[in-house]
Amino acid sequence: MRLPPLLTRGCVRRELSLAEIFQLGYYWETKILLTAVRLDVFSALGEREQTVPEIAQQVGADTRALELLLNALVAMKVLTKEGVRYANTGTARTHLVKTSPSYVGHLLLLHDAEWNNWGRLEEAIKTGRSPVSRHVFETNPELGANVLTVLDRIGQQSGPGLAKRLGLEKAKTLLDLGGGAGTNAIAFCTVYPNLTATVFDLPQTLAVTERVVKEAGLEGRISLKPGDFNADPLGGPYDAILMSDILHYQGPEANAAVVRKTFAHLSPGGTLIIKDRFLEESRTGPAWVTAFAVHILVNTEQGRCYTAAEAMDWMKAAGFASIVELERTAVVQGIKQG
Ligand SMILES: C[S@@+](CC[C@H](N)C(=O)[O-])C[C@H]1O[C@@H](n2cnc3c(N)ncnc32)[C@H](O)[C@@H]1O
Question: If you take atom 18 of ligand 1, which residue's CA is the nearest one?
């Protein structure tokens, strides 16, 4: 049967078939994978091929139930099975075994930790209120810090490109506000040899930052400033301030206030760069961000996904000039006139 086209923003999109709608409704495979990460099945397997009883003994599981989980993981192409022996695929060995330098399980463990919040989505939609009162970096700093190390590894690929595109050759000082593991501060200092950076973040997060900055050999050029950016002074003045992936954790009033605060901490001619997961004006795309906005609804008290125009309005109200959307739905920049 030919499916009727849908017209969205001038693009022809195919509508979903019933089979695809059913497929969307199956979260079974998601929970199978997350449970395997929690049980650390992949580390138990490591480089070896093992039987169900051997794996069950290591992860503390019932053999009959574990076998069902392992078989599903084989069908999902995360494990392989030869006879009665199971093994990790190459991707599982690289990214899901804890001792691997490319381990990403912490991010999946975060998704699992948020499972119960998602179970309260209906309540959140009906009341408009989030089931949580604070975000993960405040409630579970250890998990938050582990997630930052994964984000750091992923961000290492995009940070230098962003730094180059911003053209910050004249800047001597950068404030990376809510800078997390220091991924962007490291990338910016690597691209601009005359730049020194300050990473401002919650004290519990900065323990991770200290380690990552030291590993990059940049402790001489990157300093750490602990604090709450809504309440504490930011130091400075700085030639550039970066806010990367922090505004979606907060409500609009708090964001307008923190943007105003950055204006006061910039030198004349200085620039504020906001990188975030912005929604298109229609708020129906990018697709990943529309789902992320629902994730933010159930997992933060005040957070939201915003449009780039909203962030640019906060900049305008704070006094910034030459405000541009540098990268669609990703980066906006404003200048404090000299
Ligand atoms: C998603 S991470 C983004 C990290 C980094 N900017 C990046 O792009 O990789 C959000 C960061 O904001 C920090 N943060 C959240 N609320 C904060 C606050 N009120 N004051 C300072 N830092 C905060 C968290 O500790 C965390 O490091």
Answer: 228
Tell me which of 143, 246, 250, 292 to substitute to probe ligand 1's pocket, judged by most ligand atoms within 8 Å of the beta carbon.
Answer: 246
Distance from C-alpha of 36 to C-alpha of 55, rounded to nearest angstrom: 12
For residue 91, the CA-to-ligand 1 centroid distance in Å is 29
Alpha-carbon span 236 to 108, nearest angstrom:
37
Amino acid 144: pLDDT: 86
* Residue pair 296/304 in contact by the 8 Å Cβ criterion: yes
> Could you tell me the CATH number of the domain that includes residue 239?
3.40.50.150
Query: Which regions in the chain score pLDDT beneath 70?
Result: 1-12
What pLDDT is recorded for position 143? 84
Write out the residue range of the structural domain in which residue 26 sits: 5-96
User: Quick check: is 26 in a domain?
Assistant: yes
**pTM (two decimals):** 0.92
Choose the final residue of a domain: 40, 68, 96. Answer: 96
Q: Which residue has the tokens 């990460």?
A: 37
If one counts the domains in the chain, the total is: 2
183 CB within 6 A, ligand 1? yes
